[in-house]
Amino acid sequence: MSVLLLNASMQPLNVISRRRLCVLLTKQRVALLSDEAELEAAAALAGRRLPEGIVMVRLLRTVHVPRRMLRPNRRNLLLRDDHTCQYCGFVGPASELTVDHVLPISRGGAANSWENQVVACKRCNWRKASSRPEEVGLHLRRPARPLTQEYAHILFLRYPELKQAYDALVA
Questions:
Q1: 81: phi > 0 → left, psi -120 to 50 → alpha, else beta; which?
Q2: Fewer CB within 10 Å, N- or C-terminus of the chain?
Q3: What value, to the nearest 5°, has the Cα angle with vertex 36 and ends 34 and 39?
Q4: What are the tens digits of pLDDT across the range 14-64?
Q5: pLDDT digits (tens, 9 = 90+) for 84-140
Q6: Could you give the CA distance from residue 167 to residue 163 in angstroms, rounded to a whole number?
Q7: Cα pseudo-dihedral 149, 153, 159, 161, rounded to 10
Q8: Helix 18-26 crosses helix 35-46 at what angle (to 10 degrees)?
Q9: pLDDT at 124
Q10: What's the confidence (pLDDT) of residue 1?
Q11: β-strand partners of 100
């Protein structure tokens, strides 16, 4: 299990490893959110082991985080398109889906842009090949747009168990 790192203002920043948690705790850069969590972590570290379960820590100083632009990689495209083929609507696991360039690179399409990449099932990607979708009778279910949600939203899509713990903390 990873650790959710919160800014001093309780805004989710990132998910860090337990090893990084140990470093931040020994340098006194972070604090656990409750006294019982502090005692449990201190006992675990004294016994040379790591705390169990979901761990959330808060930085002691506020860190200014510039707005992050997400890259259009496979993982983010799957999140944006909700594991759904954008041509036929097939919903499946990531292993059965591919990344398709709407305008093929061989025809001048951009290799790494949000607007030119969509998730497609293997069958539709094979059918489309190096053609434009209209040439083979395929149509996009929705236009390809950049993923513009907050970075914290993406974190919680990747780690739903941390979202539940964070929502319980905030509520």
A1: alpha
A2: C
A3: 115
A4: 899 888 888 888 898 998 887 777 777 777 777 766 666 778 889 999 988
A5: 999 999 999 999 999 999 999 999 999 999 999 999 999 999 999 999 999 999 999
A6: 6
A7: -150
A8: 100
A9: 96
A10: 59
A11: 118
Q: Is residue 148's pLDDT more than 90?
A: no
- Tell me if the pTM is above 0.85: no
* CATH architecture of the region 74-136: Orthogonal Bundle (1.10)
Whole-angstrom distance, CA of residue 88 vs CA of residue 81: 13
- Long-range contacts of residues 32-35, Cβ cutoff 8 Å, at least 24 apart: 32/56, 32/57, 32/58, 33/6, 33/57, 33/58, 33/169
Instruction: Kindly state the tokens that stand for 40.
Output: 């449990």
Half-sphere exposure (Cβ direction) of 47: Cα atoms closer than 13 Å: 9
